[in-house]
Amino acid sequence: MSKLQLVDLAGSEKQSLTGTTGVQAKESIDINKSLHVLRKVITALTDSQSGTVKGGKHVVPYRESKLTCLLKQSLGGNSYTLMVACLSPSDKYFEENLSTLNYASRAAQISNIPTKNVDPKLLIMNDQKRKIVDLDKELKNANMHI
Protein backbone atom coordinates (compact mmCIF):
# COMPACT_ATOMS: atom_id res chain seq x y z
CA MET A 1 0.00 0.00 0.00
CA SER A 2 1.32 3.44 -0.89
CA LYS A 3 0.33 6.93 0.10
CA LEU A 4 0.99 10.18 -1.75
CA GLN A 5 0.75 13.40 0.22
CA LEU A 6 0.84 16.78 -1.47
CA VAL A 7 0.91 19.81 0.82
CA ASP A 8 1.01 23.46 -0.21
CA LEU A 9 2.68 25.35 2.61
CA ALA A 10 1.06 28.65 1.56
CA GLY A 11 2.45 31.85 0.20
CA SER A 12 3.10 35.11 1.94
CA GLU A 13 1.25 35.12 5.23
CA LYS A 14 2.46 38.52 6.46
CA GLN A 15 -0.67 40.49 7.16
CA SER A 16 1.13 43.78 6.55
CA LEU A 17 1.95 42.68 2.97
CA THR A 18 -1.30 40.94 2.11
CA GLY A 19 -3.68 43.34 3.88
CA THR A 20 -5.91 40.52 5.11
CA THR A 21 -8.60 41.12 7.73
CA GLY A 22 -11.32 39.14 9.46
CA VAL A 23 -11.58 35.44 8.64
CA GLN A 24 -8.63 35.55 6.25
CA ALA A 25 -6.45 37.13 8.96
CA LYS A 26 -7.41 34.33 11.37
CA GLU A 27 -6.59 31.74 8.70
CA SER A 28 -3.17 33.30 8.09
CA ILE A 29 -2.47 33.23 11.84
CA ASP A 30 -3.37 29.51 11.92
CA ILE A 31 -1.12 28.85 8.91
CA ASN A 32 1.75 30.69 10.56
CA LYS A 33 1.28 28.62 13.75
CA SER A 34 1.40 25.41 11.71
CA LEU A 35 4.53 26.59 9.90
CA HIS A 36 6.13 27.43 13.25
CA VAL A 37 5.42 23.91 14.55
CA LEU A 38 6.74 22.46 11.28
CA ARG A 39 9.97 24.40 11.82
CA LYS A 40 10.18 22.95 15.36
CA VAL A 41 9.67 19.39 14.01
CA ILE A 42 12.29 19.83 11.29
CA THR A 43 14.73 21.28 13.83
CA ALA A 44 14.09 18.42 16.27
CA LEU A 45 14.63 15.81 13.54
CA THR A 46 17.83 17.39 12.22
CA ASP A 47 19.22 17.94 15.73
CA SER A 48 18.58 14.30 16.66
CA GLN A 49 20.37 13.09 13.53
CA SER A 50 23.38 15.31 14.14
CA GLY A 51 23.59 14.12 17.76
CA THR A 52 22.75 17.43 19.42
CA VAL A 53 19.72 16.26 21.38
CA LYS A 54 19.27 18.46 24.44
CA GLY A 55 18.83 16.94 27.87
CA GLY A 56 19.37 13.39 26.59
CA LYS A 57 15.72 13.19 25.54
CA HIS A 58 14.49 13.34 21.96
CA VAL A 59 10.94 14.62 21.53
CA VAL A 60 9.50 15.58 18.15
CA PRO A 61 6.36 17.76 18.52
CA TYR A 62 4.28 16.13 15.76
CA ARG A 63 1.02 16.46 17.71
CA GLU A 64 1.19 20.23 18.13
CA SER A 65 -0.29 20.87 14.68
CA LYS A 66 -2.60 19.12 12.22
CA LEU A 67 -0.05 19.80 9.50
CA THR A 68 2.76 18.01 11.32
CA CYS A 69 0.44 15.13 12.26
CA LEU A 70 -0.32 14.68 8.55
CA LEU A 71 3.36 14.91 7.61
CA LYS A 72 4.69 12.61 10.34
CA GLN A 73 5.41 9.68 8.00
CA SER A 74 6.92 11.97 5.38
CA LEU A 75 9.18 13.85 7.75
CA GLY A 76 10.52 11.20 10.06
CA GLY A 77 8.95 7.98 8.97
CA ASN A 78 9.39 5.15 6.57
CA SER A 79 9.03 6.98 3.25
CA TYR A 80 10.64 8.91 0.44
CA THR A 81 10.06 12.64 0.70
CA LEU A 82 10.48 15.45 -1.79
CA MET A 83 10.18 19.12 -0.93
CA VAL A 84 9.80 21.73 -3.66
CA ALA A 85 10.63 25.26 -2.52
CA CYS A 86 9.07 28.00 -4.66
CA LEU A 87 10.57 31.47 -4.52
CA SER A 88 9.48 34.85 -5.81
CA PRO A 89 11.88 36.79 -8.05
CA SER A 90 10.72 40.07 -6.49
CA ASP A 91 12.91 41.88 -3.93
CA LYS A 92 9.69 42.61 -2.05
CA TYR A 93 9.62 38.96 -0.86
CA PHE A 94 13.29 38.64 0.13
CA GLU A 95 12.50 37.69 3.75
CA GLU A 96 9.94 35.06 2.71
CA ASN A 97 12.39 33.62 0.17
CA LEU A 98 15.11 33.44 2.80
CA SER A 99 12.75 31.72 5.24
CA THR A 100 11.70 29.23 2.54
CA LEU A 101 15.33 28.46 1.73
CA ASN A 102 16.06 27.94 5.44
CA TYR A 103 13.13 25.49 5.64
CA ALA A 104 14.34 23.63 2.56
CA SER A 105 17.93 23.55 3.78
CA ARG A 106 16.95 22.11 7.17
CA ALA A 107 14.47 19.67 5.62
CA ALA A 108 17.19 18.41 3.25
CA GLN A 109 19.19 17.33 6.31
CA ILE A 110 16.46 14.89 7.39
CA SER A 111 17.43 11.36 6.50
CA ASN A 112 14.77 8.64 6.25
CA ILE A 113 15.61 5.02 5.51
CA PRO A 114 12.58 3.61 3.68
CA THR A 115 12.02 -0.11 4.03
CA LYS A 116 9.43 -2.31 2.42
CA ASN A 117 6.64 -3.09 4.86
CA VAL A 118 5.98 -6.82 4.67
CA ASP A 119 3.61 -8.88 6.77
CA PRO A 120 5.64 -11.48 8.77
CA LYS A 121 2.99 -14.14 8.07
CA LEU A 122 3.36 -13.49 4.34
CA LEU A 123 7.14 -13.95 4.64
CA ILE A 124 6.64 -17.33 6.33
CA MET A 125 4.09 -18.40 3.70
CA ASN A 126 6.43 -17.45 0.84
CA ASP A 127 9.30 -19.30 2.50
CA GLN A 128 7.14 -22.41 2.89
CA LYS A 129 6.04 -22.22 -0.76
CA ARG A 130 9.68 -22.00 -1.83
CA LYS A 131 10.50 -25.07 0.29
CA ILE A 132 7.60 -27.00 -1.28
CA VAL A 133 8.88 -26.19 -4.79
CA ASP A 134 12.40 -27.29 -3.81
CA LEU A 135 11.10 -30.52 -2.27
CA ASP A 136 8.99 -31.24 -5.38
CA LYS A 137 12.10 -30.89 -7.54
CA GLU A 138 14.03 -33.17 -5.20
CA LEU A 139 11.23 -35.77 -5.30
CA LYS A 140 11.10 -35.70 -9.13
CA ASN A 141 14.89 -36.12 -9.30
CA ALA A 142 14.72 -39.03 -6.84
CA ASN A 143 11.90 -40.71 -8.83
CA MET A 144 13.85 -40.32 -12.06
CA HIS A 145 16.97 -41.78 -10.40
CA ILE A 146 15.05 -44.83 -9.16
Question: How does this model look, in words?
Answer:
This protein has helices spanning 15-18, 23-50, 66-70, 72-76, 94-108, 120-145. With 146 residues, it is mainly α. The chain folds into two domains: 1-115, Methane Monooxygenase Hydroxylase, Chain G, domain 1; 116-146. The protein contains six helices and no strands.
Give the SSE layout.
Elements: H1 15-18, H2 23-50, H3 66-70, H4 72-76, H5 94-108, H6 120-145
Key words describing this protein structure:
mainly alpha, 6 helices, Methane Monooxygenase Hydroxylase, Chain G, domain 1, 2 domains, 146 residues, 0% strand, elongated
| Radius of gyration over all CA atoms, rounded | 25 Å
Main beta-sheet annotation: none
**Share in helix:** 55-70%
How many helices does DSSP assign? 6
Q: State the secondary-structure class.
A: mainly alpha
Report the CATH architecture of the largest domain: Up-down Bundle
Q: Under the CATH scheme, which class of the largest domain?
A: Mainly Alpha
**Overall body shape:** elongated
Strand content: under 5%
CATH topology of the largest domain: Methane Monooxygenase Hydroxylase, Chain G, domain 1
Mean pLDDT: 82
Provide the low-confidence segments as ranges.
none
- The ordered string of helix (H) and strand (E) elements is HHHHHH
Number of extended strands: 0
- Total domains: 2
End-to-end CA span: 48 Å
Overview in brief:
The protein has 2 domains: 1-115, Methane Monooxygenase Hydroxylase, Chain G, domain 1 (Up-down Bundle), CATH 1.20.58; 116-146. The protein is elongated and about 90 Å long.
